[in-house]
Fold:
Amino acid sequence: MPREADALVAKSPRMTRMLELAERAAVADTTVLITGESGTGKERVARFIHQRSRRSKQPFVAVNCGALPESLLESELFGHQRGAFTGAVANREGLFEAASGGTLFLDEIGEAPPSVQVKLLRALQEHSVRRVGATKDVAVDVRLLTATNRDLEQLVASGSFRKDLFYRLRVIPLELPPLRERRDDILPLARLFIARTCRENSCGPCALSSEVLDALCAYPWPGNVRELENAIERAVVLAEGQPKIELTDLPVELRERAAVAAQADEPLTLAEAERRHVLDVLSRCEGNRAATARALGIGENTLWRKLKAYGVPAAR
Structure:
């Protein structure tokens, strides 16, 4: 049975192992470095860890290190004193102080400039920070989680990322596989996003046509989970309350991929033909497992085993 939490679905072996390690890491206060391509859900994993930690009732504060220039990032993280620079008209606490007692998540840590790297290392070692323009340190109690889509070891080798900070951040490394390498999770994720979008828009429920099921499974998802989420949201909206999402509701790149696959006109294996038929009947029965089993002339346990093999989540 797939495990779901904050759009984290783990049916594929790699994702299951990653989430199991994340749960084990959550109970300690050690640093975790989350790596993976853009759109794989690194912040969701960070929130997953925070929610299962002893700090879960305290703040979860997130910042993208690549979204701010060096001077602003330093002030954002560590705070500043009045008069420290032009525009600093009052004392301001940084995110380390704001997250004290909870978790601070630094996304795109590979973009952090050298001056910030030095201060991060000191904050981790001393459990204190010094605001820009201040002369005294402020004690902080923060669990630090970081993420990047870059190869930090290469950055260390090139001299653009501190080796000592790298090892300090990478006590527990978690690598998120891209969606194309965890295809067992595509349909469970799609159904999760359908349910959420229908709930948020007071519509549905929507089923997936067999053509859409094939298109979702065949597409390489270069934008990973984020691209799938956006595609499903679009499809639900364009379906306009219809009971089934059709191929025309999908983004053009998915439709083109499906058209190319159809033109290939390769004969289906018996197993693939059965899979498509079972999923089509399930869709026609609006996800009702008992009705689907009756229509197929098989037992519910047999249907359950087949759907499990196809990566379809357990019935709600």
User: Anything to note?
Assistant: The radius of gyration is 24 Å. The first strand starts at residue 3 and ends at 5. Residues 1-6 have pLDDT under 50 and may be disordered. The chain has two domains: 3-177, 180-310.
